[in-house]
Design a protein that fits this description.
Elements: E1 5-18, E2 21-34, E3 38-42, H1 49-56, E4 64-69, E5 72-73, H2 79-89, E6 90-93, H3 105-115, H4 121-132, H5 148-160, E7 166-170, H6 178-195, E8 198-202, H7 206-211, E9 214-219, E10 222-228
Parallel strand pairs: 3-8, 3-9, 6-7, 7-8
Antiparallel strand pairs: 1-2, 1-4, 4-5, 9-10
Helix pairs in contact: 3-4, 3-5, 5-6
């Protein structure tokens, strides 16, 4: 595998079974993501976008094929090894936020840092990241005291606070208005360009596609298109993607 390659999938298949019913979410996917990529994965609902992110993030295991992530063969790792990789190397942004309800916004951001043993620096880091997203005044509120968009921003702050090597974001702007989506995307692109953090998004949002340097289209569990873009300033005009 090329030293610049962060993720390599070869003939990756994922089948979900419910009783006697089988659903083939991915059908022999071949793809590579490199260090420093800023990629949007697009496609119709049910095309396999979230499934692909879950496999890359070691939240699920492939049914067939090979998957290498951060020099680790996911198929050969134990559950403990996968958990350790997720904690220390990968940041996650989920559609459902997955914030800890009894913790404040700041404590949620600090949570991964504490698990990593960041010590006293975790409070300072959490404060900085929340400030970048305009959430410092809400840092002592719990998730049920925040709007959906604010909860999503806290989830994103938690994902990037530890400066992981890879961030996987599932519809990160779905609940954000235009202004907050712009703030979020600029911050993530700055982390990408200045710290080399790789970002892989699944999205229907043309704003995310505008910022992406590369756009991968999934259709029916297969790669349909893989297009490199010039990393220029996002355009002001975008067509709405297929829902």
């Amino acid at each position: 595998m090329n030293s610049n390659t962060l993720v390599k999938a070869k003939q990756v298949t994922k089948i979900y079974k419910t009783g006697k019913v089988e659903v083939q979410a991915l059908r022999g996917v071949d793809i590579e993501f490199n260090k420093g990529d800023f990629v949007a994965i697009v496609g119709p609902s049910g095309s396999g976008k979230t499934t692909l992110l879950n496999l890359i993030g070691a939240l699920d295991v492939v049914t067939d094929g090979d998957l290498i992530v951060l020099d680790n063969d996911i198929c050969k790792m134990s559950r403990h090894q996968r958990a350790d990789m997720r904690l220390n190397l990968i940041g996650f942004v989920f559609q459902a936020y997955n914030l800890v309800p009894v913790l404040t916004a700041k404590e949620n951001v600090e949570f991964v840092l504490e698990l990593q043993g960041a010590g006293k620096q975790r409070s300072k880091r959490a404060k900085i990241v929340l400030g970048q997203l305009g959430l410092e005044e809400f840092s002592h509120r719990r998730p049920n005291e925040l709007s959906g968009g604010q909860q999503q921003c806290v989830a994103i702050a938690r994902a990037v606070a530890a400066e992981p090597k890879l961030v996987l974001a599932d519809e990160p702007t779905a609940n954000l208005d235009g202004e907050n989506a712009e703030i979020l995307l600029k911050m993530m692109r700055d982390l990408n360009e200045n710290l080399g953090i790789t970002f892989i998004f699944s999205t229907h949002d043309p704003r995310v596609v505008d910022y992406a340097h590369r756009v991968v289209t999934l259709v029916d569990g297969r790669i349909d298109k893989d297009i490199m873009k010039n990393p220029t300033t996002p355009s002001q005009n975008s067509q709405v993607l297929e829902n």
